[in-house]
UniProtKB/TrEMBL annotation:
GO BP field: acetyl-CoA metabolic process
Residue ranges of domain Hydroxymethylglutaryl-coenzyme A synthase C-terminal in the record: 246-378
InterPro entries found in the cross-reference section: HMG_CoA_synt_C_dom (IPR013746), HMG_CoA_synth_N (IPR013528), HMG_CoA_synthase_prok (IPR011554), Thiolase-like (IPR016039)
Protein name per Swiss-Prot or TrEMBL: Hydroxymethylglutaryl-CoA synthase
The UniProt record lists the keyword Transferase: yes
NCBIfam families with a match to the protein in the record: HMG-CoA-S_prok
Length: 386
């Protein structure tokens, strides 16, 4: 029985910052951003758009009435959670009007959380083939104004509906993974912004990729000649590019060139949305399928997932017949094209806004009228959504 991604979509806020504007404001050569890290724009969320809202807005795009009744497992993977105890999934369950008879949980392991959710969902469906699982990878990347990580911020969510006999991608049951305790990136409970050792994190990312690639070859999980594309977690596109480039000399030239060509298609959305942590790998999957029309049913894709701290996994999926009918490239391009470009002053003002934390009441207005959900107020230490 094949199990995998039956439907998928993404949502990102309706405003963005152009990185040329940011470079000029920070007195930096724009090519340091455009070429050096391979990014062009980054999404900027408003105060009414937290991880719950982003997740619910992504999910609304793919769920039918029947889907809502068949979902037996709801997972929100995030490192931007809104509560230390209560799962973001419970808020999302109510907003999406899902059946009460399901498991609703929140998962955390940095950017790896989305893959942890996908693999847990696959195992759930294997045991309950008549049910479906909904995985929502939702995050807001924040590093602070005028910090070294400022240019790699972003916001958005990816929704993955997992089922038996999927219509997009069948996930292979075997994969390779590795975990180790390293301090390359973290965010203490008392901090609104993440802390990172950028160069060290890149080294760990690439080392774990090479370890898993070698392990997969030793276990004969796949042959490089059979892989039609290699997708990577993309905190910024240059990071994934270095992973693909590390295979040069290990692969036949025709295989390396094929993976490199398709990698360029996979980064198109990430370059204008920015880093969305748990959803970044899956945004690259959507980008690849939207931009490369040469892919066919039966093609095998490799996916490298990485979460600082650190956990990594390398797994494969196979495109199924008719997958093209489940894609929505035109709606994605329309959503991105209609976003508002913020000035530096508007971006900095937006960034510095905060929700109250003293128990007082705070009313919020909806920043994206095209989206179905938003945070309407905070009162008595509780969040209220529409």
């Amino acid at each position: 029985m094949n199990i995998g991604i039956d439907k998928m979509d993404f949502y990102t806020p309706a405003q963005y910052l152009d990185l040329v504007d940011l470079a000029q404001a920070r007195k930096t050569d724009p090519n340091k951003y455009l070429i050096g890290i391979g990014q062009r724009q980054m999404a900027i969320p408003s105060l009414d758009q937290d991880a719950v809202v982003l997740a619910a807005n992504a999910a609304e795009k793919i769920l039918s009435t029947a889907d809502r009744q068949q979902i037996g497992l709801l997972i929100v993977a995030t490192e931007s959670g809104v509560d230390q105890s209560k799962a973001a999934a419970l808020f999302v369950q109510q907003l999406l009007q899902l059946s009460p008879y399901l498991r609703a949980i929140e998962l955390k392991e940095a950017c790896y959380g989305g893959t942890a959710g996908l693999q847990l969902a696959r195992d759930f469906v294997a045991q309950h083939p008549q049910q479906k699982a909904l995985v929502l990878a939702s995050d807001i990347a924040r590093y602070g104004l005028q910090t070294s990580g400022e240019v790699t911020q972003g916001a958005g969510a990816v929704a993955l509906l997992v089922s038996a006999n999927p219509r997009i991608l069948a996930i292979a049951p075997d994969s390779v993974y590795q975990s180790q305790n390293v301090n390359d990136f973290w965010r203490p409970n008392y901090s609104q912004e993440a802390m990172a050792r950028g160069k060290f994190s890149e080294e760990v990312y690439l080392k774990m990729f090479q370890n898993l690639w070698t392990q997969a070859q030793a276990q004969k999980l796949w042959q490089p000649a059979d892989l039609q594309a290699l997708l990577c977690h993309l905190p910024f596109s240059k990071m994934g590019l270095k992973a693909v480039r590390s295979l040069q000399g290990q692969l036949a030239s025709v295989d390396y060139e094929r993976l490199m060509r398709r990698f360029q298609a996979s980064v198109q959305y990430g370059q204008v949305v920015g880093n969305i942590y748990t959803g970044s790998l899956y945004l690259s999957l959507i980008s690849l399928l939207d931009h490369d029309t040469s892919l066919q049913a039966g093609d095998q894709l490799a996916c490298y997932s990485y979460g600082s701290g650190a956990v990594a996994e390398l797994f494969t999926g196979t495109l199924v017949a008719g997958f093209q009918e489940q894609l929505h490239p035109h709606s994605h391009q329309k959503m991105l094209a209609q976003r508002q470009r913020l000035t530096i002053a508007e971006y900095e003002a937006e960034f510095q806004q905060q929700l109250v934390t003293d128990g007082s009441a705070q009313e919020l207005t909806q920043s994206d009228p095209t989206a179905p959900h938003y945070l309407t107020k905070v009162e008595a230490h509780q969040r209220f959504y529409v």
